[in-house]
């Protein structure tokens, strides 16, 4: 009768020589998720074809995951900035792509502003800021409250400027159609479309801190003997105030879906349209 190999020896041979992956197919070569998938799909060693197919799927998935919207890596405010810059003319911003179609879109140095027109602009601007700041204070959506007392508020500053003009003997006009229309639109958006409202909030405050300041300085040189209005002054360091609001905006947008973010970005053109109509008053 043939002798039998002892069980302990047989088990040792089994462990040493059976079901061991070749080096090229070991889990050190492929990501762990691939080796787990292979073992689930096959009771034996995965084939090279299966490995290659899995690699293609992984590469495609990784490629899709890396695709981002312009500015997305830095936060949603950068996405808003990117879209806004594209709607500027080249004279207004180096990233601008818009063609000059309206007088206020051309170089400020070529403008012919009037004091009466500038007063109309200031009055309508105050109505818009009054509206924005009132909405934030009431906060029909709770997260609006994040943007109270940011230091960027302009309503009180504009009130002081209009009082100064009044003391100089100028009659202060009533708000005109561009300001009234925009204010009503902001009220409507704030109650039913928070993402769109935030787009206007961002563009109004941040545009004024950049291009708005430049316009104010140029107009003051032309018609106000270089007087610096309160509208263009902030209590505190403006870069830090802007950064604080930028961080709040990014934080709020973290809870939005991609669709909600895109909806916000799509509102940028309307924001520029309404602001442009008010800016045009300077030249009236």
From TrEMBL:
<keyword id="KW-0809">Transit peptide</keyword>
<dbReference type="InterPro" id="IPR016084">
    <property type="entry name" value="Haem_Oase-like_multi-hlx"/>
</dbReference>
<dbReference type="GO" id="GO:0010024">
    <property type="term" value="P:phytochromobilin biosynthetic process"/>
</dbReference>
<dbReference type="Pfam" id="PF01126">
    <property type="entry name" value="Heme_oxygenase"/>
</dbReference>
<dbReference type="InterPro" id="IPR002051">
    <property type="entry name" value="Haem_Oase"/>
</dbReference>
<dbReference type="GO" id="GO:0009507">
    <property type="term" value="C:chloroplast"/>
</dbReference>
<dbReference type="GO" id="GO:0046872">
    <property type="term" value="F:metal ion binding"/>
</dbReference>
<keyword id="KW-0602">Photosynthesis</keyword>
<keyword id="KW-0479">Metal-binding</keyword>
<keyword id="KW-0349">Heme</keyword>
<dbReference type="InterPro" id="IPR016951">
    <property type="entry name" value="Haem_Oase_decyc_pln"/>
</dbReference>
<dbReference type="InterPro" id="IPR016053">
    <property type="entry name" value="Haem_Oase-like"/>
</dbReference>
<keyword id="KW-0560">Oxidoreductase</keyword>
<keyword id="KW-0934">Plastid</keyword>
<keyword id="KW-0408">Iron</keyword>
<protein>
    <recommendedName>
        <fullName>heme oxygenase (biliverdin-producing)</fullName>
        <ecNumber>1.14.14.18</ecNumber>
    </recommendedName>
</protein>
<keyword id="KW-0150">Chloroplast</keyword>
<dbReference type="GO" id="GO:0015979">
    <property type="term" value="P:photosynthesis"/>
</dbReference>
<dbReference type="GO" id="GO:0006788">
    <property type="term" value="P:heme oxidation"/>
</dbReference>
<comment type="similarity">
    <text>Belongs to the heme oxygenase family.</text>
</comment>
<dbReference type="GO" id="GO:0004392">
    <property type="term" value="F:heme oxygenase (decyclizing) activity"/>
</dbReference>
